[in-house]
Amino acid sequence: xxxxxxxxxxxxxxxxxxxxxxxxxxxxxxxxxxxxxxxxxxxxxxxxxxxxxxxxxxxx
Length: 60
Description:
single chain; mainly alpha; 2 helices; flat
C-alpha cells in the first residue's frame, strides 16, 4: 500500500490491516490469506459489489 503524506488510510483499510495481522498472529499462512482474499474478491464481483466505482471497493 502506498504511503500518503498528510492523508490517512480509510477506516476500511485500517480494519483490513488489523485483520491480516491478527490472522498472521494466529498462524494463518500467507498463501491461505491470498487464496481467501482471491475467493472473496470473486464472490464480491459476482454480487456486483465492484460497481461502486471506488479503487478500494474490495476493502470497503
